[in-house]
Amino acid sequence: MVSFIKTFYGVQFRMLSYIIKRLATSLVTIWMVVTITFLLMHTIPGGPFTREKALPLAVLKNIEARYNLNDPLWKQYTDYIQNLARGDLGPSFKYQGVTVNQIIAESFPISAQLGLASLFIMLFVGLPAGIISALRQTKWQDHLAMTLATVGVAVPNFVVATLLMYIVGVKLGWLPTARWLSWQSVIMPSIALAGYYTAYVARLTRSSMLEVLQQDYIRTARAKGLPERVVVYKHALKNALIPIITYLGPILAGILTGSFVIEKIFAIPGLGEHFVASIGNRDYTVILGVTVFYATLLVAVNLIVDILYCFIDPRIRLGK
Amino acid sequence: MNNILEVKNLSTSFFTHAGEIKAVRDISFNVGAGEAIGIVGESGSGKSVTALSIMNLLPYPGRIIRGSVCFAGTELTNLKERKMQLVRGNEMGMIFQDPMTSLNPVYTVGNQIMEPLIRHQKLNRGEARNKAIEMLSLVGIPGPENRLNLYPHEFSGGMRQRVMIAMALCCKPKLLIADEPTTALDVTIQAQIIELLKDLEVNINTSIILITHDLGVVAELCNRVIVMYAGSVAEKGTTRDVFYNPRHPYTWGLLKSIPNANAEQKERLIPIDGQPPDLMHTPAGCPFCPRCAYAMQICAEDQPPLYRLGEQHRAACWLLHPSAPRVERGR
Questions:
Q1: CA B217, CA B211: separation in Å to the nearest integer?
Q2: Rg (Cα) of chain B, in Å, rounded?
């Protein structure tokens, strides 16, 4: 028992030191993202106050001075990093009197709802579909699920979105076509966003499950007289999940970036919509702020996936 | 001696797209209580399929097409899957060839040993844990209390095979089927595992079916031997019969191909030339005929019956027919 506790704390300690190490490298990653975005952003021609009808030079100078845009680039950069370190993402150049922090706080919850709903669909439709087709291999359930999955992987999300809008929204009138007004507004965008990943997860689960069911340890489990339910859901599923979890990081990244397109199509006032608009507007602080926010989110999600990984596969040792 | 297992005229085939593969063809044998029998033969001779047929664990598209498997008075071939689950792992244990892949990598060894105990013996977790510790020390794993919480990858191959044995025997089965239990292990570990099986046969009083292509292992452990070739029985009898008085040319070939520890340096191993027959198109006559140095006309035309040579000793070879020419076993 004592040695058990020792191993247990050993594992905990290793995990903690791993997490600290990962957090340190994450800071470097985010710093690089900030720097590269900052430089790229300033190489794009035009600026936040470029208009078709040019402003008088004196006015432009005044505005630029107001936002410190007339400082040398390195000064702007160091100022930005200092503010960032304090968690201040600065004011929006485009929207008067609104800070980037406010924009994110206001619009991210909407994007998060959309993302979580998609994730939910992906896990609760994709996984079961994959398991069922593996268990009913070559039967009609398998053919149905895999035909749908192939279509799902092949058709891009903006096509799914437009078709849904046209059929379910316009023709049938069951769901609102656009905007973010009630819980019903969540359904179509999240299906459009989750479609590809649900299909992908279903196919991945099926092939992973089929492979695991061939393994010797599954035969061992059957030879122990365990009922098929236990063989499938205890012995096979946990092993079959390993490759799916590996893919979870890229999937989450895809759902985040995919939401740019979907939010635009469905006119959802989420963060993706602001991000896309900010680039057109050369709204420097919004571009940087949202990029930093997304980068941080992705790094965090990947860290969580990697930690989840060790819980499911004991052969993976962290921090080595 | 009353029989714990009676296999009668068992035939198992795999129905593939290319056709029916007759993996096991009409084999019969008994296993007495507390007895160890060996099934030997080369790869593809139907040894493992026989074992999986007994366990009712044939992988798709395999099916028992004829015959009966009677275990402790129960006919297993037509038993419902639910009933069969109560036999497997409880009254009949099985260990497999490759211990590296036969344990589930994502559960602890303790968890996996406790499963059949909780399921079949209705023990609670604490009792099952104690029993698992007891089993691990029985199969010679030192410090079982701590090992219980380890995962299979933290064990060596020999240790994993010990775990497999502990798992198969934890419910004190009447029959243990060991399918090439030493093939994937080092020679020194092989000897330890055979020694362990020998002890356990006595300690737990279980019958053993040992499937192997290692004749040395059979001589060490088994009372009786069945020599299989191309899915059917070539020769069977007591270990003494088969090793000292073999009557089938295939058995002669097998015995000649064993390396001899006392051999002169230049002595070479003598392989049996040729390949076993394609089981999709089984020959009309004796399956060993094309490789047999003593083959006669009839061997290619008709399947030889199992000739009775002694109380236990049987061999399927036309040379044993009264009117066949007498041949000397080649040296």
A1: 10
A2: 21
Q: What is the pLDDT of residues B244-270, one digit of tens each?
A: 999 999 999 888 887 777 766 666 777
A225 touches B: beta carbon within 8 Å? yes
Distance from CA of A313 to the nearest CA of B (A): 6
pLDDT digits (tens, 9 = 90+) for B276-311: 888 888 888 899 988 888 888 899 899 899 999 988
Residue A132 makes CB contacts below 8 A (sequence gap 6+) with A141, A142, A145
How close A199 comes to chain B (CA, Å)? 26
Q: What are the residues facing B306 on neighbouring strands?
A: B316
pLDDT of residue A4: 53
Q: Which of B156, B152, B115, B154 is nearest to B135 (CA)?
A: B115
Question: Is the CB of B146 less than 8 angstroms away from the CB of A238?
Answer: no
User: What confidence tens digit (pLDDT) does each residue in A3-46 have?
Assistant: 555 555 666 677 788 888 888 999 999 999 999 999 988 888 77
* Cβ contact A167:A98 at 8 Å: no
A235 and B98 within 8 Å at the Cβ level: the answer is no
Cβ B312 vs Cβ B241: under 8 Å: yes
Q: Is the pLDDT of residue A314 over 60?
A: yes
Looking at residue B124, its amino acid is N
B67 in the Ramachandran plot: left (φ > 0), alpha (ψ -120 to 50) or beta? Answer: left
- Report chain B residues whose CB lies below 8 A from the CB of A225: 84-90, 116, 119-120
Look at B106 and A223 and tell me if their CB atoms are within 8 Å: no
User: Would you list the DSSP string of A114-166?
Assistant: HHHHHHHHIIIIIHHHHHHHHHTTTSHHHHHHHHHHHHHHHS-HHHHHHHHII
Q: Is the ipTM of this complex over 0.90?
A: no
Q: How far is CA A40 from CA A34, A35, B89, in A?
A: 10, 9, 66
pTM (global) more than 0.95: no
Interface of B with A (CB under 8 A): 55, 57, 59, 81-82, 84-90, 93-94, 96, 98, 101-108, 115-116, 119-120, 145-146, 149, 151, 153, 164, 167-168
State the DSSP string of A201-246: HHHHHHHHHHHHHTSHHHHHHHHTT--HHHIIIIIIHHHHHHHHHH
Structure token pair of residue A92: 């929006």
B32 beta partners: B3
Closest chain A residue to B54 measured between Cα atoms? A223
Residues of A in contact with B57 (CB under 8 A): 219, 222-223
Asked if A61 reaches chain B (Cβ–Cβ under 8 Å), the answer is no
Instruction: Report the alpha-carbon distance of residue B313 to residue B165 in Å, rounded.
Output: 31
In A, which residues are within 8 Å of B167 by CB distance?
A: 220, 224
Chain B residue whose CA is closest to A312: B106
